[in-house]
Design brief:
By secondary structure, this protein is α/β, with parallel strands linked by helices. Helix content is about 35%, strand content about 20%. Helix 1 links the parallel strand 1 and strand 2.
């Protein structure tokens, strides 16, 4: 399976995206997925549209992208975190 570029975004590209980035790193390792994680501000997503395979974000976005967008609030709240993890794994296995 080819390496997948995963954008991990929050409002400032620092705090909450760091938490999510670590969780995805562990998730990828546990599922033998080859990922390139790119931690960014939500405003920087546009610069990666042509190369990204997935956006996982804690920020709100109404914009449409040519790749799946997964809301990662569950990594902060703990509510339905397993569901979000499965959604990420499923998106990366496509």
């Amino acid at each position: 399976m080819a390496k997948k570029k995963v954008l991990v975004a929050c409002g400032a590209g620092v705090a909450t995206s760091t938490v999510v980035n670590g969780a995805i790193e562990e998730l990828a390792k546990d599922n033998n997925l080859d990922v390139d994680l790119v931690q960014i501000k939500i405003a920087e997503v546009e610069g990666h549209v042509d190369t990204a395979d997935l956006l996982v974000t804690t920020a709100m976005t109404k914009k449409e992208y040519p790749f799946p967008v997964i809301n990662a609030q569950s990594f902060l709240t703990g509510i339905n975190m397993e569901g979000t993890k499965q959604e990420i794994v499923d998106a990366l296995k496509k």
